[in-house]
C-alpha cells in the first residue's frame, strides 16, 4: 500500500478549498453589484418637416365623407373640410369588385373654398355598364343583366401655388416631384347596381 505524506494530502485539500473560496467570493461580488438600469431604446427620430409643409398639411382639404348611389346615373357625394382655399386635383375611379378592373376614371382640377364643402360627381350608369361589357364579359355575350357591387375610389390632392412650393425645403420639393410626398386625401366606398346590357 502506498502511503501519502501530509504535504501531499494538504496540497490536495487546500487547492480545491482555494478554488471554492475564489468562486464564493466572485458570487458574493456579483450579488452585491448594483443592478444595471435597463437600456433605453431611443425612438426613431420624427420626420423633420418645414413650417411650410406643416401648414399645408394642416390646412389642406381632406375628404370626410364619400357616398355613392346608383340609378340612371351613378352619383357620388363628396364632403371635404379644410382651411386652404384653392385648386385641388380630384380623381375618381369606379371598378368592379370581382376582377378589380377600372371601368370609369376621371381626373380633373376643381376649386374649393375654405371651410366645409359638399360636391357631387356623376356618370351615366350605362357608361359603367358598357365598360363592364367591354372589359369583363366574353365578346359573344349579349343581352346580359349585371347585378354587382362596384367600388369607388376618390383622391383629393392640393395643387400647390408658387408661394406654397417656395415654402417647402429642397428635399420636400424633390419628393413632391417624385411622388414621395403624400398630400393626398383618399376614401373608398361601394354601391350596388343592376344593369341590363344589350349589344
Question: How is the topology of this model organized?
Answer:
Blueprint: H1 6-32, H2 51-59, E1 62-70, E2 73-81, E3 86-96, E4 102-112, E5 117-124, H3 125-135, E6 144-158, H4 162-166, H5 170-177, E7 185-197
Antiparallel strand pairs: 1-2, 2-5, 3-4, 3-6, 6-7
Structure report:
The chain has one domain: Sandwich (Immunoglobulin-like). The protein is of the alpha+beta class. Strands 4-3-6-7 form a four-stranded antiparallel beta sheet, with helices on one face. It has a three-stranded antiparallel beta sheet with strand order 1-2-5. The protein contains five helices and seven strands. It is elongated. Helices cover 30% and strands 38% of the residues. The longest helix is centred in the first third of the chain and has 27 residues, at 6-32. The chain has helices at residues 6-32, 51-59, 125-135, 162-166, 170-177; strands spanning 62-70, 73-81, 86-96, 102-112, 117-124, 144-158, 185-197.
Largest sheet data? 4 strands, antiparallel
Beta-strand portion reads 35-45%
* Strands in their spatial order, largest beta sheet: 4-3-6-7
Shape: elongated
Q: How many domains?
A: 1
Q: What is the average of the pLDDT values?
A: 83
Q: Give the radius of gyration.
A: 36 Å
CATH topology: Immunoglobulin-like
Number of helices: 5
Class per helix and strand makeup: alpha+beta
Low-confidence segments: 1-20, 26-32, 34-45
Helix content: 25-40%
Amino acid at each position: 500500500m502506498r502511503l501519502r505524506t501530509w504535504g501531499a494530502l494538504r496540497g490536495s485539500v487546500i487547492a480545491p478549498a482555494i478554488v471554492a473560496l475564489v468562486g464564493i467570493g466572485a458570487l458574493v461580488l456579483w450579488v452585491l453589484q448594483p443592478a444595471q438600469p435597463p437600456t433605453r431604446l431611443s425612438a426613431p427620430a420624427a420626420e423633420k418637416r418645414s413650417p411650410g409643409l406643416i401648414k399645408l398639411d394642416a390646412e389642406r382639404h381632406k375628404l370626410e365623407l364619400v357616398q355613392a348611389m346608383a340609378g340612371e346615373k351613378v352619383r357620388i357625394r363628396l364632403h371635404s373640410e379644410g382651411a386652404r382655399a384653392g385648386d385641388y386635383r380630384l380623381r375618381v375611379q369606379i371598378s368592379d369588385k370581382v376582377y378589380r378592373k377600372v371601368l370609369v376614371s376621371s381626373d380633373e382640377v376643381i376649386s374649393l373654398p375654405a371651410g366645409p364643402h359638399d360636391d357631387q360627381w356623376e356618370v351615366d350608369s350605362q357608361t359603367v355598364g358598357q365598360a363592364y361589357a367591354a372589359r369583363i364579359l366574353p365578346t359573344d355575350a349579349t343581352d346580359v343583366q349585371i347585378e354587382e357591387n362596384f367600388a369607388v375610389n376618390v383622391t383629393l390632392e392640393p395643387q400647390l401655388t408658387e408661394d406654397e412650393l417656395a415654402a417647402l425645403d429642397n428635399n420636400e420639393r424633390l419628393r413632391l416631384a417624385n411622388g414621395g410626398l403624400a398630400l393626398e386625401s383618399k376614401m373608398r366606398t361601394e354601391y350596388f347596381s343592376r344593369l341590363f346590357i344589350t349589344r
